[in-house]
Design goal:
Helix content is 31%, strand content 25%. Helix 1 (2-14) crosses helix 2 (88-101), helix 2 (88-101) crosses helix 5 and helix 3 packs across helix 6. It is built from six helices and nine strands, in the order H-E-E-E-E-H-E-E-H-E-H-E-H-E-H. It has one domain: Rossmann fold. The model has no long low-confidence stretch (mean pLDDT 93). By secondary structure, it is α/β, with parallel strands linked by helices. The protein has a five-stranded mixed β-barrel. Belongs to the PNP/MTAP phosphorylase family. One of its GO terms (biological process) is nucleoside metabolic process. Pathway: Purine metabolism; purine nucleoside salvage. Keywords: Glycosyltransferase, Transferase. Its EC number is 2.4.2.1.
């Protein structure tokens, strides 16, 4: 894999992706932060050697390089999911490439459903910990030890210092920012009432179909990492109403300005 990663990074460097300081992965309906980036270079995923291609219609497929809040950033506009048929190694390949390009910090966003009944749709949740329910690990392949410690410690996968900064910024700006546990499932179907009850019992505050693989690999690569969820629906099994993806995307878009404000202020402090 190291050969492929080097080949991909060399291609991106030739396109102007020079020494980014941090990476950003944009989740469902969270693309407007690009309006605040002074874009230097961008490349479609399907032009990048060895890169997967986004297959979900509302996930764009571009890697973008530019300046945000005075820092050089590389941004994934659209991510990959195992429900698209990718392996966990495919899903996390871009994280390895961003590390090869030079990033030291990774910021992740996603859209998720609120399991905690005190959390409401349209609010944000800072991920404090997670539960991997995707059935495997992105580190479960032969040769992984060539890229980092096979038995990666996950006692504190989300950077405590960055999380504290996020909480301070949210308080200063009057943004509701819950803190909780994110459960990552395979999808793409949404959960049943019984599954929502199970998730609550095991300690999940929110549920989604992404993020955890990228977090595991970021820790494998010794990157500082933090993640924020936009809560797009409320998952009360006793009062469950049908939800469709267009409503989820609309709710993510509604909460997006608060997410952007958090990210921009945080990046100034890094």
């Amino acid at each position: 894999m190291l050969k492929y990663i080097t080949e991909t990074a060399d291609y991106l460097i030739s396109k102007g992706f020079e020494s980014p300081e941090l990476g950003i992965i944009l989740g469902t309906g969270l693309g407007k932060i690009l309006d605040d980036i002074d874009i230097i270079a961008e490349v479609s995923y399907n032009h990048i050697p060895n890169f997967p291609t986004a297959t979900v219609e509302f996930h764009k497929g571009k890697l973008i390089y530019g300046t945000l809040s005075g820092k050089k950033v590389v941004v994934m506009q659209g991510r990959f999911h195992i429900y698209e048929g990718y392996s966990l190694q495919d899903v996390t390949y871009p994280v390895r490439v961003m590390k090869q390009l030079g990033i030291k910090t990774l910021l992740v966003s996603n859209a998720s459903g609120a399991i905690n009944s005190n959390f409401k749709k349209g609010e944000l949740m800072l991920i404090d910990d997670h539960i991997n329910l995707q059935g495997s690990s992105p580190l479960a392949f032969r040769g992984v030890e060539q890229l980092g410690e096979r038995f990666t410690d996950m006692s504190a996968p989300y950077d405590l210092e960055i999380n504290k900064k996020f909480e301070t910024i949210a308080k200063d700006k009057g943004i509701t920012l819950h803190k909780g546990v994110y459960a990552s499932v395979v999808g793409p179907q949404l959960e049943t009432r019984a599954e929502y009850r199970m998730l609550k019992i095991i300690g999940a505050d929110a549920v989604g179909m992404s993020t955890v693989p990228e977090i595991i690999v970021a820790n494998h690569l010794n990157l500082k990492v933090a993640a924020v969820s936009v809560l797009t629906d409320e998952c009360d099994p006793d009062n469950l109403k049908p939800v469709n993806i267009s409503e989820i995307i609309a709710m993510a878009g509604k909460a997006e300005p608060q997410m952007i404000a958090l990210f921009k202020e945080l990046i100034k402090t890094l």
